[in-house]
Amino acid sequence: MSYELSVNGRRESVDVPGMTPLLDVLRDELSLRGAKKGCAEGRCGACTVRLGDRTVASCLLPVAVATDEPISTVEGVAAPDGPLHPVQEALLECGGVQCGACTPGMVMTLCDLLEADPDPDAQSVRQALVGNICRCTGYHKIVEAALSAAAALREAR
Ligand code: FES
Ligand code: FES
Predict the structure, then answer these.
(1) How does strand 10-15 pair with strand 48-51?
(2) pLDDT on residue 4
(3) Where in the chain is the domain with CATH 3.10.20.30?
(4) What's the chain's average pLDDT?
(5) How far is the CA of 24 from the centre of ligand 1 (A)?
(6) Which CATH architecture has domain 86-156?
(7) What is the fold of 2-76?
(8) Which residue's C-alpha comes closest to atom 2 of ligand 2?
(9) Which of 26, 27, 44 to mutate to test the pocket of ligand 1 (most atoms within 8 A of CB)?
(10) Mean pLDDT throughout 4-20?
(11) Could you tell me what percentage of the chain is helix, strand and coil, using 3-state DSSP and rounding each to the nearest 5?
(12) For helices 140-156 and 103-116, what crossing angle results, to 10°?
């Protein structure tokens, strides 16, 4: 079956069974491999993308229900050929990226948080990240990066 999607502002057409997870469509059909398949059970956050105005676990979302709202992936966070997004910059600067498996999902969740709350405290950041598992960093540097990115974004306003 053919489905029309809006991904990072581009119209895309894919021909797959309707129950195919959005994550598989992004990675296998559209070659957008930023979102990662960690658990494939909705528990690790590595596959997080944005659908409309909310983040979703794309490993659990059938493509058939992702056609009505715009999809944003980590590939669309920074402007093409532009600098990294402040969240990406801060994660690198603060040492919040080690193996990187969790990073695309972290970026999507943190961008979502900072859009809703431009001045979060550490507790709010930790709460927002409750569905994003990182096995490497111990989270402290990721929280630090989120607070640093929030400050940079406020300053840029
Ligand atoms: S791969 Fe989707 S939540 Fe783990
Ligand atoms: S940096 Fe390795 S899982 Fe987070």
Answers:
(1) unpaired
(2) 98
(3) 2-76
(4) 97
(5) 11
(6) Orthogonal Bundle (1.10)
(7) Ubiquitin-like (UB roll) (3.10.20)
(8) 99
(9) 44
(10) 98
(11) 40, 15, 45
(12) 50
Ligand 2 atom at minimum distance from 106 CA: 4
Give span(s): CATH 1.10.150.120, the chain.
86-156
Distance 57 CA to ligand 1 centre (A): 6
Are 31 and 7 in contact, with CB atoms under 8 Å apart? no
Tell me the CA–centroid distance for residue 104 and ligand 2, in Å. 10
Give the model confidence (pLDDT) of 79-122 as tens digits.
888 899 999 999 999 999 999 999 999 999 999 999 999 999 99
C-alpha 78/C-alpha 31 separation (Å) is: 17
Inter-residue contact 131 to 45 (CB < 8 Å): yes
**DSSP summary character for residue 98:** S
CB 90 within 8 A of CB 83: no
Ligand 2 lined by 151 (C-beta under 6 Å): no
| pLDDT > 90? residue 57 | yes
In the predicted structure, residue 125 carries a pLDDT above the cut 90: yes
